Amino acid sequence: MSNIACWMSEKKIQKINWVEFEKTCKKHGFGLFKLDLNKSLESQGGPQVPKLQCAKLIERVEEYIRGHPTLVVLDPIPHVRQLLNRYISYRKINSTNLHKYGIFIPNFCELNSTNLQEQLTNAGVSYPFICKPSLGHGSKEAHEMSLIFNERGLADCRTPCVAQSFINHNAVLYKIFIVGERHHFVERPSLKNFHACDEDTIYFDSSDVSKAGSRSSLTLLEPHEIFDKVEPNPEVLKRIAVTLRGEFGMDLLGVDVVIEKDTGKYAIIDINSYPGYDGFPDFYDALVDCIGKRVKCKTDKFGDDFIN
């Protein structure tokens, strides 16, 4: 029996039904154990699919992976690194052919400490815009954002950061959860419609605003903005999932998508590694099936003796 080694933050461990996950792994012919990165990796049964998030231990784990070519690694570390910097990941999304299907990423730029307005103008970023930490995921700070309405608000930008034009989308966000060849999307609350004005900067935590059931004042549309809801096109969301999975070479991704109010175009506003997967049906089965396919792929390439 092959083993699946799993390591993740304590917060995500608490969200997991470990007993159920273990049963699902066993059903698919895998053993499961929690990987302790504070102990020797050699002494822990030869982990087969480590899931990594702790930057301090990355070098040590990379060295172990290089020394054990039999390992099947879900989302190799170099691929995950693409998502650590929002500006880099946005550029990568921008380089795909999604624009051919009316899918875009709102104008963005990386802001440094001086000449902020010039940087915004050169990149076509307009007011209002979202000021986002350059760090794409892996900490609470990655979700601490601000909405800048005017040039006066530039003083509130915590550089270096990423500025992205805010587009009105009727306070509806779609989260696409990707697990290998499968994907699923859920609807979540989002920021209401805003326009450039003399208002002060608004600070918010994106994970709080867009969590299921959120009733923040930032997400409630004005009475005159209530609209007939338009269901998203599953084929468009599938196109996004398939394209970005291939572009980033990863199996576990979360993509935030909104539909622009005035044009009906689909906009990708963020991407992250290993999202929460709240609302993904039969997630454990999908995850272990994805792992199984990766193992089979290596087995077909190198033979059973190589894997075992």
Please outline what is shown here.
With 308 residues, the chain is an alpha+beta fold. It has 10 helices and 12 strands.
Structure, explained:
The protein is α+β, with helices and mostly antiparallel strands and 308 residues long. The chain is 30% helix and 22% strand. The protein has helices at residues 10-15, 18-27, 58-67, 77-81, 86-94, 116-123, 206-209, 234-248, 283-302, 304-307, and strands at 2-6, 30-34, 103-104, 108-111, 129-133, 144-148, 161-165, 172-179, 182-189, 202-205, 252-259, 266-273. A hairpin with a 2-residue loop joins strand 8 and strand 9 (182-189). The chain is globular. The strands form 3 sheets. The protein has a 5-stranded mixed β-sheet with strand order 3-12-11-8-9. The protein has a 5-stranded antiparallel β-sheet with strand order 4-7-5-6-10, with helices on both faces. The protein has 10 helices and 12 strands.
Write the layout of secondary structure elements.
Blueprint: E1 2-6, H1 10-15, H2 18-27, E2 30-34, H3 58-67, H4 77-81, H5 86-94, E3 103-104, E4 108-111, H6 116-123, E5 129-133, E6 144-148, E7 161-165, E8 172-179, E9 182-189, E10 202-205, H7 206-209, H8 234-248, E11 252-259, E12 266-273, H9 283-302, H10 304-307
Parallel strand pairs: 1-2, 3-12
Antiparallel strand pairs: 4-7, 5-6, 5-7, 6-10, 8-9, 8-11, 11-12
What topology, given as strand order, has the largest sheet? Answer: 3-12-11-8-9
The helix-and-strand class reads alpha+beta
Q: Helical segment tally?
A: 10
The gyration radius over C-alpha positions equals 21 Å
Strand percent estimate: 15-25%
Element string (H = helix, E = strand): EHHEHHHEEHEEEEEEHHEEHH
Helix content: 25-40%
Residue-averaged pLDDT: 87
Assign an overall shape: globular
The major β-sheet equals: 5 strands, mixed
Low-confidence runs of at least 5 consecutive residues: 46-54
Number of strands: 12
N-to-C span? 9 Å
